[in-house]
Amino acid sequence: MNTLNRQNLDKLRQKLAPHPLHLGVILDGAVASFSDTANSLRFTNTATGLRELLRELFVAVSPDASIQACSWFTPDPSSQTGVTRRHRTLFAAYSYLDPQHFPTNFASGVDTLATQIGKQVGALSAFTHVTKATLATPEQTAIACFDSTVRLFLRLFDTIDSAREHLRDALQIELQERLSEIFGSLSSLQ
C-alpha cells in the first residue's frame, strides 16, 4: 500500500494544534480511513474527512459574523448565508482589513488560493458520491488528490502567517513614522 505524505501530514498536525482539538481528530480519522485497505469506502471516507476538516477549520478561523462585518464583504446570492469559501479564505488572510492594504502580488496569490480551494473541494466531493467509478479509483489517483489537499491546507496556513507578518511590518513602519513626527514636532517646540 502506498501512503500519504507523512511529512506534510505532520506539518499540518502542527499547524492545527493551536486550533480546536477536534480538527486534529478529523485529520487523524481521515488518515486512519485511508490506511484501512479492507474498507472499500476508504477513499470516500478520507475525502469526506478532509473536506469537513476544511469546513471546520474555516468555522474556527473565519466565522460568518466576522466575515459579514468586513467592509470588503459582499454577500454571494448563491450562498444561503451569503458567505462562501472564497470569503472564508479572504478573511483567513486579511481578517477585517481591506485587501488593498496588502501588496498586489499577495492579494493575487490569495485570490488564486481561494480558487484552488474551491476546485479541491470539488475534487474531494467527487469521491463522496459512491459509484462504480469512485470505487474503482486507482490508489495513486486518490493519493494525488489527498496529498494535494494537505498541501493546500499548508498553503492556507502559510498565507495566514504571511499576512500577519505583512501587517506586523506595516504597523511597525506606521508606528515609527508617527513617533518620528511626534518627537520631531516636540523638538521644534523647544
Characterize the structure shown:
With 190 residues, the chain is an all-alpha fold. The chain has one domain. Helices cover 74% and strands 0% of the residues. The chain has helices at residues 6-16, 21-35, 42-61, 64-68, 85-94, 104-128, 132-135, 139-189. Helix 3 (42-61) packs parallel to helix 8 (139-189).
What characteristics describe this protein?
190 residues, mainly alpha, elongated
- Number of extended strands: 0
Overall 3D shape? elongated
Largest sheet: none
SSE sequence, one letter per element: HHHHHHHH
Indicate the structural class.
mainly alpha
Number of domains: 1
Computed Rg: 21 Å
Q: What percent of residues are in strands?
A: under 5%
Work out the helix count: 8
Low-pLDDT stretches are: none
**Overall mean pLDDT score?**
93
Give a nutshell description of this structure.
Helix content is 74%, strand content 0%. By secondary structure, it is mainly α.
Spell out the blueprint of helices and strands.
Layout: H1 6-16, H2 21-35, H3 42-61, H4 64-68, H5 85-94, H6 104-128, H7 132-135, H8 139-189
Helix pairs in contact: 1-8, 2-3, 3-5, 3-6, 3-8, 5-6, 5-8, 6-8
